[in-house]
Write a structure and sequence with these properties.
- With 239 residues, this protein is an alpha+beta fold.
- The chain contains three helices and seven strands; from the N terminus they run H-H-E-E-E-E-E-E-E-H.
- The chain has a three-stranded antiparallel beta sheet, with helices on one face. A two-stranded antiparallel ribbon has the order 2-3.
- A hairpin with a 6-residue loop joins strand 2 and strand 3 (124-126).
- The longest helix is centred in the first third of the chain and has 71 residues, at 4-74.
């Protein structure tokens, strides 16, 4: 028979072994979790980036949609963002949206004459020469006069008709060279994108704008051939 001291030593040895096994199992589990996390983390970051890209496109389309509605209403482009918020007591832009990648409303304003529109679609580029490259003639909308009084343009301290010279700066706080009528917005973050838009793979190269000539191009494109009619079944004699 074992003495009580011997039995106590055996119990302590067994307890130490069990504690060692438990510690080893915990370390192995943590190692597996770190390996799985290192594999999954890039995928999570990629998915978050994709979601931000989709949100950026959605918010940019909110601006181009507001510009389209403004253009169809008054026959001209807005001179600043304030005109999209309130012109003749009409609101075309629901609110100012932030760039998801910067967290600020620091969109780059695209002015008329800064975008190349190629015939038949294609890419859109900033036109350094200041003119449009397109097979369509430059639209010359007729401005609608703004009545004097409280129904004028808000945000600019101008209650009557807007100045023909327009706003030479960005309504988002970033000074823009040149200025003039606003046709769209663009990104500012200098980072490579996952999605490619108009052959551009950096966010600061993405541009979203409204040009009525795009609609003209779509109208000139002939519709594709429809599905061929299915042959009629031949009636059987006496059927």
């Amino acid at each position: 028979m074992f003495s009580p001291r011997k039995v106590s030593d055996i119990a302590r040895t067994k307890s130490r072994r069990q504690a060692g096994y438990i510690l080893l199992s915990v370390m192995l589990l943590m190692t597996l979790m770190l390996v799985a996390l290192s594999v999954e983390l890039p995928r999570v970051r990629q998915q978050i980036k994709r979601d931000k890209e989709e949100e950026m496109i959605h918010r940019a389309h909110e601006y181009t949609g507001a510009i389209r509605r403004f253009y169809r209403k008054f026959g001209r482009y807005p001179l600043n963002i304030e005109q999209l918020e309130n012109t003749n007591n009409l609101r075309f832009l629901r609110k100012r949206y932030k760039d998801p990648f910067t967290g600020k409303d620091d969109w780059r304003l695209i002015h008329q004459g800064e975008v190349v529109l190629k015939v038949g679609g294609g890419t859109t580029n900033l036109n350094n020469s200041g003119g449009f490259n397109s097979g369509f003639s430059q639209p010359t909308p007729t401005p609608t006069p703004t009545p004097q009084g409280s129904g004028g343009i808000s945000g600019g301290g101008n209650s009557g008709s807007p100045s023909p010279s327009g706003s030479s700066g960005s309504a988002f706080g970033n000074p823009q060279p040149g200025g003039g009528p606003i046709i769209g917005v663009g990104g500012t973050r200098k980072e490579e994108s996952i999605k490619i838009i108009d052959e551009k793979d950096h966010y600061n190269e993405w541009v979203f704008y409204y040009d009525p000539r795009q609609e003209q191009q779509q109208q000139l494109i002939p519709p594709g051939p429809g599905p061929s009619p299915s042959p009629s079944p031949t009636p059987r004699p006496g059927g």
